[in-house]
Amino acid sequence: MRLFALVAAGLSVLAAGACSGAEEAPMTLTVSAQTWAGAPDGDSAQESVTLPADEGESVELPLAQGERLEVSGRDGERVELTTSVPMAPAGDGGGINLRDTRTDFSLAPGEPVEFSTPSMDSGTTWTVTVAP
């Protein structure tokens, strides 16, 4: 009888754990920034910052003037990001897309996202990666 009670208690703990939903594995975002200028002799600066890839986490973008990046959602390994101001995403053939500025970006491990200040003369490009 005692063995039966122990087995029943163990099974109820397993069932409760299965119903509560699994927590997402910890992941880290790395935000790397590089300034650029249209002139070939323009000065360039680089900086990076890391933060947990958890919903609600936010950080001031490196080499920015108060612009922020927030983790707005997470579904497994896919991470949704929101910027505080519209940014120009990387173009398909290189460069930036000034016709499609946005504040929402999505990435997963092995799929970095790149966006820049929407400017043609000088600005900053950020590359965001996520890793377990």
Write the layout of secondary structure elements.
Layout: H1 2-19, E1 28-37, E2 46-52, E3 58-60, E4 68-75, E5 78-89, E6 102-107, E7 113-116, E8 122-131
Antiparallel strand pairs: 1-2, 1-8, 3-4, 4-5, 5-6, 5-7, 7-8
Task: Offer a quick outline of the entry.
The chain has 132 residues and is mostly beta strands. The chain is built from one helix and eight strands; from the N terminus they run H-E-E-E-E-E-E-E-E. The radius of gyration is 21 Å and the shape is globular.
Q: How many DSSP-defined strands?
A: 8
Strand pairing plus helix content: what structural class? mainly beta
- What percentage of amino acids are in beta strands? over 45%
Distance between the termini: 45 Å
- The amount of helix comes to 10-25%
Net shape? globular
How many H/I helices?
1
What is the H-and-E element order? HEEEEEEEE
User: How many individual domains?
Assistant: 1
**Which blocks of ≥5 consecutive residues have pLDDT under 50?**
3-21
Rg estimate, integer Å: 21 Å
**Main sheet specs:** 8 strands, antiparallel
What's the pLDDT, averaged over the residues? 85
